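User: Here's a chain of 484 residues. Predict its fold as tokens.
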Amino acid sequence: MTSISNYIRDTSSNETKSPERIASLDFQRGLAIFIMIFVHGAANIIDYSYIEDDLSVIGSMPIPILMIFVLLAFFAVWNSYFLLISVIVNSYAMAKGIENNKDPNKILFKQLLTGGGLLIANYIQLSFFATGYFGMVLKTGDWSNTYPLWNGFFQMGTLRIIGWSLIVLSILLFFLLRNNGYKKFYRNIAILGCLAIAVIVPSQFINNWVDSINWTIPSQLPVGVNIGSDVWWPNTHFQALNASIKAWFCALISGDIEPLFPFLATAFIGGIIGLCLSKPDKIKRLPLIGGLTGVGFMGMGVPLLIFHEFTFGTMRPSIGNYFLMLGGQLCSLFFFLWIVEYRGKGQKFGENIVVKHFRLWGMASLSLFVIDIADTLPRWIFGMFYNLIFNTDINTISGGVFGQGQEHIALLYALISLIFFEIIILVWSRVNFFLSFEWCIVRLVGIITKQPSKRLKVDVMMNDIKWINFREKVKAQKNIAPIG
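Assistant: Prediction complete.
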């Protein structure tokens, strides 16, 4: 469904060489951000409180609308798909870089810069844009409300979990892979696997402990803040209104939306996949093994959802929800690896015109996350024309204005929002995404490390890529004659 952190992903420091890419991962990153923009467009304008109040109304929806919303609801909670893709790409790059005798210290430094850059970008997004200060000003007209400026410290959103995961995983891989440690493949994946289990197993206990802390129920809410009906932990506003070092730490490990427990396990699993893909002698049945692992996670998730706890939306997921999401993501990931790289079709797939377009979206995935406040403009224009045509007085900027029986209007607006962002992408790409957050991180890393990147040269990334395939390497292994 980032990476967002594929900014330094040129596998050679030689500027005359074409960057190497894994086509299916680039495609999935772009597709994920594309779907996210559509989902956010609908979510920004629909009032789904009637569903929360009475789940039985779902059955009265027209079948086509119901099917669309079921699909959107399922994929809407796939935020961590960006995390999975990000850590796969970064662990693959680290392993190949160290294998090719690059300085592990420089590789680690670049990874830490990227992770730190994501944490900064996430704070800017949450504190200043759509859900932050300027977003609140647009909704309320109140310039004196400083609550959004510090609220962002207490949210564990997608960019923040990716940033922390990159930092933790990069440090771990640095110690595992250096000094020829990359050759100890089974040791490395065993350590990562044990760490993933060590994160998943105590997650529910950590959640229960944090939830049971004697938090303070706020007596007054900042202007424009709707804390919802569940006034307790985990809740992003509730966490911020209990502002303290303790609340910050608890939000990090067990807050809304994607805390370290259990999502750090996704990072370790992604690290395993990255190491498997970087292995010189490829694992022939890796897509099958990975797909079955995904099915296994989904199989564990379903009974946990039925008999334990069901969470949905932006809430911190229950373990059952987490398993269901992770399993679906693994199945999707390995399906694309199977039909593309493991069939030797990286170049054909990567140069397909539709795939190219989604790869273009993927190049600016971080910035699209951050500038979601741009959705305010088409929403305002849409509301103005809607009021003019239907003689109403709705405020689309405040959000949540179309309720039961008006779901088709929300879907129509989501399509309009998508077209608006399409225009942004096409225009911005003409100047290589100049001044985007990706551009800032790439420039900063390039200046500090003195290793320029082609990551945001659109013409190069669209037309001059060396596509990675795994089929040829698997076939080459089969054709090696036995000795003796």
